[in-house]
Specification:
single chain, 486 residues, mainly alpha, two-stranded antiparallel sheet, 22 helices
Amino acid sequence: MAWPSPFRIRDENTRTCWGYTFQLTPEHLSPEKTRPMKFSYDVLGEQALDRLNEISPPSRSALPRNSNKYAEAKPALERDEEAPNPNPNPIPKRDLYILLRDHAHHDETLGKLWQEVNTIPKWVDWEQIARGQEVFYRYGGPALTGLCFQSLLGGMGANRVVETLARTGGFSTKVARHRLFETTQHILQCTQSLKSIQPGGDGFASSIRVRLLHAAVRQRIMKLARQRPEYYDVENWGIPINDLDCIATIGTFSATLVWLAFPRQGIWLRQQEIIDYIALFRYIGYLTGTPTDYFETPEKARTVMESLLMYEIDPTETSKTLANNVIRSLEAQPPQYASRAMLEANSRWLNGNELCDALGLGRPGFYYWALVAGQCLFFMAICYTYRSIPYLDRRKIAALRKIFWAVIVDGKYGLQEETTFDFKYIPDMHKTTRLEDSDKSGIKQPGIERRNLQALLLGCGFLSISAVVGYRIVSGLAKHFASTLV
C-alpha cells in the first residue's frame, strides 16, 4: 500500500500517477519521444525467425485453421487426465534455440544473431550479475507477489499492450495460470545460477527463445492486420511487441519491483542491491532484443518507469477482461488456495484503489486487507532477519532456488515440465480473449490466508508486548528521574 510522505515537498513538477508520486524532470520521456519506439522493433530477431522457418518449417498442427474453434494450450494437470498418446515415439518439439545454435555457423543471418547474443557487452560484470540474481531470492516471497499482482496484473492497465495479449488467447481463465508459470520459469532460469545466464546456460537459452517467440507473435499479428486493418490498429497501438513494449516489460520485472512492489510490502532494498538487480535485468533485456540504454543506471530505470506510468497506463475494457481473467484463473488454486477476495486485496494493496477500480476488480472487505497486512509483516520479518545474518542469507537463497523450481516447474500443481516457449498462443482473426467465469475445480483448503492471519496475530501480539514493555521502561525511568530531583 502506498503511504503519502508528510515530508514530501510539492511544486509545479510534482506528479501523482496511480498512487505513485514523483518529480518530473527533463530526463523523463515525453509522448513525442516514445512514439518512434512504438514503430521500431527487433528486426534481426524477425530476420532470424524467417530463416529458421525456412530451414525447419513449423508443423501444420502449429498453424491456425480456417475455423473459429481452436484448442488452447492446456496445463500439465489437464493433459495428464486425457487419454494416453497412442504414438509411443512422438515427434520432438521444434526448438528454435537449438535450430539457431546448430545452423548459426552456416547461415549469415543466423550467424549475426548468434554472434550478437554471445558477445558479452563491456558493461556486464559477472560478479554483479550474480549478486543481482541473489537479490531476487533474498526477497523471494515479496518478489513473486509483486511480479504476479503488480507487474502482471497491474500491467494490464497498459492499454496498447493488452491488445496484443488479448489476440493471442493466452489469458483466458483456462491458460492464464499456466502462462504465468511459464513467465516465472524464464525468471527462475535467469536467476538459477551465474552459469545459467551465461552463454549456453538455461536462462540464456530461454531468453533467446522468448526473443524469437516475440518475433513470431509480431509477424502473425502484422500479417493479419495487413489482411484486415480493423483487426489491429497499428497507427494507434504501434507495431506489436515494439521497442517501447519491451522496455516496459523489462521495467516491470526490475524497476517496478524495486520502487513500487517492494516498498508497498514494507521492503526497501539497499542501494547496492538496487544497482545489481537493475544490471541483471539490463543483461536479460540485451538477450531478448530490448534497448538497454534505459537501464544503464538505476536512475534511468526509475525515470523510464515513471514515464510509462504517466503515458502508458490507461485501462480499457480489454484491460478489465484480462485482469479479471488472471484473478479468476488463480482463485482457489493450489498451492496457495487463495480466495478471490484475497487475490483482489493483494492487487489493491500493490496497485492502489484507483488503478484497480479502473481494472474492474472487486472491493474486498477489511478482513482481507488485514490479511495482506499480515502477509507484509511476515515478509518483513523473514527478509530483514535473514539478510542481516550472512549465514542464514546464503542458506535461504540456496533453499528458495530449489523450492521455487520444485513448486512452479516440477511440482504437481506447476508446469510439470519445462516449457520451450514454443508458438502455441497463436493470434487469429476469430480469436480474442473474453471475460470468463472462474474455474470451480480449485480445492478449497486452508492456505495462504491462514498463514497471513497467523502472521497478523503474531505481529499484533509482538507490538502489544513491545508497547507494554516500552511503557513500563519509560515509566520506571520517569519515576527514577523524578526521585533524583526531590
